Amino acid sequence: MTTTSGEFALLDETWSSVTPPAARRMLIAAAAAFSVRGYHATTTRDIAAQAGMSPAAVYIHYRSKEELLFQISRIGHATSLSLLTGVTEADPVARLAEAVRAFASWHAEYHTTARVVQYELSALTPEHLAEVVELRRRIETAVRDMVSAGVDAGVFDVPDVRGATLAVLSLCIDVARWYQPTGRRTPAEIGDLYADLVLRMVGTP
């Protein structure tokens, strides 16, 4: 399966910090290939073909196939954390809704990348996995703090903050597994739907 130029352009927004352009294109190609074939079934030759480059070009920019996966995982998780911590609403209800809206819609809009980010972690080396796990811990903390703030303000009815936090994260992350661009909802509409569902989950008035 070859990614269309339109899909490359969409994915490129996530990886805009990666330079030079050839390294960025290789990372995008790896995300697309891993999403279709899975990490273990994908070869560096598959990735190079997806990027329209020679197999040797992979090793100019990345030490290994695992290094590509690590960069995809690291940048994807860092992007998720930025989405959650970048919400500026002071009101706990509006803050959680906006965070969920951004988080869920990203997992839909960038579902190809998000599937790799969320579901190929077991292939990382222990050192790389530890770095990604720390980002995941910070993501969980960001959401838990939002839920706790609502409980403290008396606007959320949540007897188990940690359980509610994991439920919110699981709900949003799972979008990457099932989302299809041909479905009846756009990423923005999914974000709106999930924001409403999460507010109902935490018992807002």
From TrEMBL:
Tell me the Pfam families matching this sequence: TetR_C_24, TetR_N
Q: Does the keyword DNA-binding apply?
A: yes
Recite the UniProt keywords alphabetically: DNA-binding
Q: Which residues bind DNA?
A: 43-62
Would you say which domain of life the source belongs to? Bacteria
Name the PROSITE patterns on file.
HTH_TETR_2
Q: Give yes or no: UniProt keyword DNA-binding.
A: yes
**Gene3D superfamilies referenced in this protein's UniProt entry, alphabetically:** Tetracycline Repressor, domain 2
Span of domain HTH tetR-type: 20-80
Q: Which InterPro entries match?
A: Homeodomain-like_sf, HTH-type_TetR-like_transc_reg, HTH_TetR, KstR2_TetR_C, Tet_transcr_reg_TetR-rel_C_sf
A GO term, aspect molecular function: DNA-binding transcription factor activity
Name this polypeptide is given:
TetR family transcriptional regulator
The organism is Saccharothrix texasensis
